[in-house]
Amino acid sequence: MHRLQLHYTLSRDASPASVRNPLIDLLQAVSSQGSISGGARALGLSYRHVWGELKRWEKELGNELLVWEKGQSARLTDFANKLMWAERQAQARLAPQIDALRAELERSYALAFDDTVHVVTLYASHDDALSRLREFALKAEDQKLHLDIRFTGSVDAIRALNEGRCVMAGFHTLIDMGKKTGTERTYKPLLQPGLHKIIGFAKRTQGLMVARGNPLGLHSLQDVAQRQARFANRSLGSGTRVVLDDLLAQAGLSVAQLNGTNRGEPSHAAVANAVAAGQSDAALGIEAAAVSAGLDFVPLTQERYHLVCLKSALTQPGIVQLMQLLRSPPWQHTVATIAGYTPVQSGEVLAMRRVLPWWRFMPRNMKHVLPA
């Protein structure tokens, strides 16, 4: 059993969060370039260094990494290919946790190095635009705003807000949803008009993520059910799991009719990777994740991603700065460049009754005219 050690570095650069091992980079470079010398050039390293590192790793791991045949192109062993596969699997599944870990470290250092930085702790359903927003806020020269984002399911995010573990939550719902839906049953007990305030963020597209060329010809959830395509599902409590239930109900289907819904993945990236790796035939997710994984995408529906906070938090400096940032043209342009995203009323405080039309308010003087 080989043990892992994790390390982090301090830097002024707002680079993406990652947990990587240099061996994987070496293998990727040699594999893509077809030779040790080509891989070394691609990495900006010397042939001697790369050759020595590969030999060192073979000794460390007790397995050969390259098929060493004189005069032949460098070729990875089955073990090396499995190492790269394991890395891709782990990166896709753990991306939200890696982001959360870095956010926790950055929050501590933000407070340690600059006590004028405003920190907004946000629990949210996994979303590519939110990850981009965190980087955008760090680079904004006129802002001193740090977004401490913890990715979790939509339900857990709102519960965290109500329990005081964060000052803002992120969740998403279908556009033009009706009443008596799974979405209403899930979120209505957690949100209260007058106590909570919705802040606009973005509109995004959800659909089927399928292999290149869509070999099974999947264009709807009915197709997925009828052809018993292997389906990669999201975890219970995630917003996309709630969306799936409502889409199935609209199509007259039950979750039991899908093949593979007993197992849940933690993020859009994880289900996309399951399809890309050939472990599943389809998954419901956002277009940005499909594009990132090199998959085809079949749009099914549009939804709005909401931010929500307590009314009392609207005047907090961090929330005020965040809303200003969301309303800025540079940020809205950034959102528009993400596949499947459109900025919609970004940074605006919205009436919950209009965005989530589940409550029917009635003037007190009208109650007595209604039948008992």
Describe this structure as you would to a colleague.
With 372 residues, the chain is an alpha/beta fold. Helix content is 41%, strand content 19%. The chain has 14 helices and 12 strands. The strands form 2 sheets. Strands 3, 4, 5, 6, 7, 8, 9, 10, 11 and 12 form a 10-stranded mixed β-sheet that branches. Helix 1 packs across helix 2. The chain is globular.
Total helix count? Answer: 14
CATH topology type of the largest domain: D-Maltodextrin-Binding Protein, domain 2
Mean pLDDT: 87
Number of domains: 2
Helix percent band: 40-55%
Strand segment count: 12
What is the multimeric organization of the chains shown? single chain
- Which H/E pattern describes the elements? HHHEEHEHEHEHEHEHEHEHEHHEEH
Low-pLDDT ranges: 361-372
What is the CATH class name of the largest domain? Answer: Alpha Beta
Structural class, from helix and strand content? Answer: alpha/beta
Mind telling me which CATH architecture of the largest domain this is? Answer: 3-Layer(aba) Sandwich
Q: What radius of gyration results from the CA coordinates?
A: 24 Å
Report the portion of residues in β strands. 15-25%
Shape: globular
Q: What distance lies between the first and last C-alpha atoms, to the nearest angstrom?
A: 70 Å
Taking the sheet with the most strands, its summary is:
10 strands, mixed
